[in-house]
Amino acid sequence: MKPSKLIKTLTFLLIPAALAGFVAQVIAQEGLSRQQRIEKSATTEIWEPVPRMVEPGQGSAPPSDAMVLFDGSDLGSWTPVRSGSAGWNVEDGAMVVAPGSGNMRTRESFGDVQLHIEWRTPAEVAGDSQDRGNSGVFFMQRYEVQVLDSHGNPTYANGQAASVYKQHIPLVNASRGPGQWQSYDIVFMAPEFGRDGRVRRPASVTVFHNGVLVQNNVILHGPTEYIGEPLYLEHGKAPLELQDHGSTVAYRNIWLREL
Length: 259
Ligand code: MG
Description:
The protein starts with a helix and ends with a strand. It contains two helices and 15 strands. It has helices at residues 3-30, 34-42, and strands at 67-70, 78-80, 89-91, 94-96, 104-106, 113-120, 135-139, 143-147, 182-189, 192-193, 199-201, 204-209, 212-219, 241-242, 250-258. A hairpin with a 5-residue loop joins strand 10 (192-193) and strand 11 (199-201). By secondary structure, it is α+β, with helices and mostly antiparallel strands. The site of magnesium ion has 8 residues, from strand 7 and strand 8.
């Protein structure tokens, strides 16, 4: 038999068979008593594990199980990356980049996280492209979601706000103007490494910028490099880091949930 004829014959036989099965199932269910239907439906119910209760925050307040990294008052969860640096400043409930002081990192290390962070580029616009309101949120000190004033500020698309720096262009530009508070809600999944030190599961990230989906579970090719191709090197949990790129970018309301 020719392959095309075989397919025709199989289709001829299979479609009526599938239809008959469906009809039989409907008839069988029709014939069930109310009690029998309840019992049958229960076979596909799963009752455990019961998700634990989390009190969601009002507005942008953190949920009850979040770790608050900055509540507007003190930098106790943070330390300068560069030894001897005085670090950043706290002004009007925000932590603000002190240009030249270097990056800030959390004291604690993390792997998979859900992060909420709010940021604001300077109201007074200075510079252009990568020199306008540049900062960045580095997961595990290696993987940057870009912070930039991308409101009417052309630059390379894989380096604009909410890009995974030089790896993924955001789906849309959801930027607010300079001097306005903006938010990122991010799910970051850490890379996993095998016994041989090679990456077994690459890192991935989902980003909402001001509530708009801009990175949909994208796969990272390795650390986000300024120059050259990314390359994974084995590492464990590591701090969250915020970038000093010479612009007085402010951050507030920073919290995360370890996943
Ligand atoms: Mg940056």
